[in-house]
Amino acid sequence: MTALTELNFFSIHIEYAGTVHYSRADFFVNYLDTTLKSKQEISVRDNILLVKIENNVCTLTLNRPEKKNSLSPELVEILLKTFEDLAADDTVRAIVIRGFGNQAFCSGYDIRALPTQSSDDINEKLKKLNPVETLFKTVVNYPYPVIAMVNGMAFGAGCELSLCCDIRIGADDIRMGMPPARLGLVYPWSGLLRFVQVIGFRSTREIFFTGRTYESNRLKELGLVDYLIPRRDLENFTHQMAAEMASNAPLALKGTKRVLNLLVNASQPAENSIKEAESLTEASFLSEDLKEGQRAFLEKRKPKFKGQ
User: Fold this and answer.
1) pTM > 0.70
2) From residue 109, how far is each of 74, 133, 239 by CA, in Å?
3) Alpha-carbon span 225 to 213, nearest angstrom
4) Is 256 helix (H, G, I), strand (E, B) or coil?
5) Which of 190, 199, 202, 224 has its CA 20 to 30 A from that of 213?
6) For 50-299, CATH number?
7) Domain spans of the chain, in order of start
8) CA 126: distance to chain centroid?
9) Cα separation, 85 vs 7, whole angstroms
10) Which tens digits make up the pLDDT trace of 287-302?
11) Backbone torsion region of residue 132, taken as left when φ is above 0, otherwise alpha when ψ lies between -120 and 50, otherwise beta
12) What does 232-253 look like in DSSP terms, one character per residue?
């Protein structure tokens, strides 16, 4: 994977002792840094990420309700920068990720962004998705605990985002699933490995082979969530746990999380296995089945796959 290129942020509006308009990322970074150190709340308005900090706990709200809080390239970049700055400050000792509203946690990555046109540089097209994997790794490697408050649907990349978190707490009426097989896509090996590491081979096989949508207690049985909480109690339950974690010894939290990540990553696939897995994913991106899967998704009909 290539390193993420320098971010080019669009104009954002930040409410802090009045509304101030910034047009460059460095102003946002300076603002974030100053606010973290004063332990005050940040409220990013008219934008796609809302950030709130209170008592060493940061709540990140994906704010694209019109797109069911799906990940876009811009949102991924802002999340990456925000995690980087929070980690550097070291006073935010627990993070809660949620979606705006009650309909969606994160509905995935915009299907329209998937490359399907045949060319000689398919690898270059696939690199456009690298920031998403970079985001997932950033969440996993954040030095303190990260909690997914799954307050609505979580599919595809949204489901994987929740699995990158240390704890997943869901409302009792949510739905989750991984639809790549229904779209004609071989999911990237790094994502499949992450599912195996978190929920095991058995659950991973069922989820990816069926492409089903899951709800209720089956979510806990598969390991997709750790808790299912009545919606009315979800926020209190989640933030109480986050506050409890954040109140513990910082060195113990950071050290324990680092050791756990070292143990998880102790066994990685061989290089030749990775190359084969990547070639299978690349082939699926060029397939007629993926094009048909995308068309069917957008047209809200059942796809007619031909294995081509």
Assistant:
1) yes
2) 12, 11, 27
3) 14
4) helix
5) 190
6) 3.90.226.10
7) 50-299
8) 18
9) 14
10) 787 777 778 878 888 8
11) alpha
12) HHHHHHHHHHHHHHHTS-HHHH
Q: What is the Cα–Cα distance from 71 to 106, expressed in whole angstroms?
A: 7
| Cα 152 to Cα 154: distance, rounded to the nearest angstrom | 7
What is the model's pLDDT at position 70? 94
Alpha-helical runs (H) found in 53-145: 73-89, 122-127, 130-140
Residue 44's pLDDT is what?
53
Q: Which pair of tokens denotes residue 107?
A: 């509905």
Locate tokens 């971010």: which residue?
Answer: 7
Question: CA–CA distance from 277 to each of 139, 188, 190, 201, 293 (Å)?
Answer: 23, 7, 9, 17, 21
Q: Which of 138, 174, 142 is CA-nearest to residue 159?
A: 174
Strand order in the sheet with 49-54: 49-54, 57-62, 94-99, 146-150, 167-171, 227-229
Q: Name residues whose C-beta falls within 8 Å of residue 44's C-beta, 6 or more positions apart in sequence.
A: 12, 13, 14, 15, 50, 51
- Residue 227 CA: distances (Å) to CA of 154, 167, 174, 233: 15, 9, 12, 12
Question: What residues have CB less than 8 Å from 17, skipping those under 6 apart?
Answer: none
Segment 237-289, tens digit of pLDDT: 999 999 999 999 999 999 999 999 999 887 777 777 777 777 777 777 777 87
Taking the C-alpha atoms of residue 62 and residue 69, their distance in angstroms, rounded to an integer, is 6
Q: Within 10 A of 223 (CB to CB), how many other CB atoms are there? A: 17
CA distance 267 to 193: 11
Which residues lie across from 51 on neighbouring strands?
60
Strand partners for 52: 59
The residue count of the chain comes to 308
- What are the Cα distances from residue 74, in Å, to 4, 11, 30, 38, 119? 13, 12, 19, 27, 25
Q: What average pLDDT does range 144-161 have in this prediction?
A: 97
At 129 the three-state DSSP class reads: coil
| Structure tokens belonging to residue 78 | 């802002």
